[in-house]
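F.,

This is the one I mentioned.
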């Protein structure tokens, strides 16, 4: 499965960069395929392992905050792996043929 998520502590001021970096560090240390962009971090793996990483990343981002906002979108497609890059590759191939 692929899970794209965004996590941010609330009530800690205008900048949340350090909290987001703490969450992304958890994702990267998990060893699961992942990608971070300006809006979301996407992670690929099995349900239990991905959700465990999302939980730990949310906890890391929320340290010192009384409230955390979590936005999550999942693509659950059993039997498929490597979709973190394969989905983008398919679109790029189509764009290249235009």
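My design for it:
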């Amino acid at each position: 499965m692929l899970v794209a998520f965004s996590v941010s502590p609330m009530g800690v001021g205008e900048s949340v960069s350090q909290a987001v970096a703490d969450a992304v560090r958890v994702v990267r240390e998990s060893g699961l395929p992942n990608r971070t962009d300006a809006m979301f971090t996407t992670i690929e793996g099995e349900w239990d392992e991905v959700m465990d990483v999302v939980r730990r990343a949310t906890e890391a981002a929320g340290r010192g905050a009384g409230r955390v906002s979590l936005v999550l979108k999942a693509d659950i497609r059993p039997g498929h792996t490597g979709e973190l890059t394969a989905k983008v590759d398919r679109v790029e191939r189509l764009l290249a043929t235009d």
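The chain has a mean pLDDT of 94.

Talk soon.
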